[in-house]
Amino acid sequence: MSMQTARVEEKLFQNRYVVDQGKPHISIEPHRQPSKNLLAMTKLCPAGCYVENSAGQVEVAPDGCLECGTCRILCEPSGDIVWNYPRGGFGVLFKFG
Amino acid sequence: MIEEKFDAIVIGAGMAGNAAAYTMASRGLDVLQLERGEYPGSKNVQGAILYADMLEALIPNFREEAPLERHLIEQRFWMVTDRSHTGMHYRSDDFNEEKANRYTIIRSQFDRWFSREVQAKGAIVISETTVTELVSDAYGKVIGVRTDRRGGTIFADVVVIAEGVNGLLGSRAGLRPAPKPEHVALAVKEMHFLPRETIEARFNLHGDEGVVIEAAGTISKGMTGMGFIYTNKESVSVGMGCLVADFAETGETPYGLLETFKAHPSVAPLLEGSEVKEYAAHLIPEGGYNTIPQLFGDGWVVVGDAAQLNNAIHREGSNLAMTSGRLAGEAIFQVKSRRDPMTKQNLALYKKFLDASFVMKDLKKYKDMPKLLHTQSHNFFLTYPTLVAKAMDNFLRVDGAPKLDKEKASIRAFVKERTLRGLFGDALRLARAWR
Fold first, then answer.
1. Which of A47, A48, A70 has the CB atom closest to B244's CB atom?
2. Is A74 touching B (CB cutoff 8 A)?
3. pLDDT tens, residue by residue, B319-365
4. How far separated are the first and last CA of chain A, in Å rounded?
5. CATH no. for A3-92
6. ipTM of the prediction
7. Is A94 in the B-facing interface, judged by CB distances under 8 Å?
8. Of A38, A80, B156, B406, which is least packed with CB atoms within 10 Å of its CB?
9. What pTM was computed for the model?
10. CA distance linking residue B287 with residue B178, whole number of Å
């Protein structure tokens, strides 16, 4: 884990979430090699939800998602990901916003 | 879930949605408002500055009850390099007026209050409900919505789409394209808590006075972007935002950029010893006038961030949202009171109202700015701030070199970096886009 990923996890720790167990609101289409934009999400996602695994594929774990929509704007048009709003009441719940 | 048919369904309980629901409910329309958060405000993120004028148009006495933080008496613009900032500050006691013009607010608290006002006017507000789809009839007229709760379609004469910047429902229904990476900025923000007295001492404030700092320069590493610091009563909002397309190109991380901004020698002393209680991220529409989608159609209107109504130059968004929501509500009320159907032709009244307001006039004025700042980002965010800092250093440092030589050196540096032609070109382009 890089220093920066560690730092973002520390940030997310301050937030309040209700995780919709087993129903992630973002999923990545199966791929052998990630597209340029999908790979960029490993740096661009403000919650660090996107990581590159040892096989060079990109995985997403949206538990800490801040629901900004950056990945949808970058990766949905090419069909790299499927993006939905979380179910009502789930996801990040901002105390201050 | 709900059997009857509403006059209007409002999707989302942010500034635009609340303004629309408030306007329609207070004129006696049957309004259903759907919000996916735990309560209205729990999904909403902003800096945040409230512009009083636009709220006054809806709730004239809002100052008596709304949760406001500080009224702004000072604005600091900083052009920054890694080790310096050159500032232009405006502070005036005239901003200490009975009815102040701008306030800092905390969105989750403010929106919760705003929603209570909406409900007091008779709108039905249902939270923890995500709208999954706009429902149309065979002719393409929007006739209602489907949600993630059981119960099928909820019907209404008109749907006000106030779903926010992502515009997921609108683009899925084919009413508009999804925002493009070069037309939205990603901003990240932290809430830093400090004792009230500490904030007032560090920022030179008395009582509920507040200050805004906005910084642009090398902190965005050549990308189109800026950092901001807003004072609240007992907290300071600190954030940083850049265009998504720029982020993707440079490989910078948003949280890395925020950390760099916080560690800047001009910023760090302001935040020292603070306790961070939240980290948020949000997209901001930056494309301006040229990226505004179709705003109305058969059975629907779109308002606020969902309509990309944001003035990037003046960093105004929530007031455009509020005004567009109010004008949409007023247009719908007028169509309804004439007993006319909610057709595209009739709902064009909303666009007519919007065109006549500051919303479209301001966005039109700056229609060429987003493109200019984006294509020239290296010059405006790296080259010029560095040159200005060098010139300032040259001007102030006393080292025995004659002043004339110093002045010449400063001018030579500008010409060397941008050439005379480049300097005049930049000035001309900026002036044209500003006009």
1. A70
2. yes
3. 999 999 999 999 999 999 999 999 999 999 999 999 999 999 999 99
4. 28
5. 3.30.70.20
6. 0.95
7. yes
8. B406
9. 0.95
10. 12
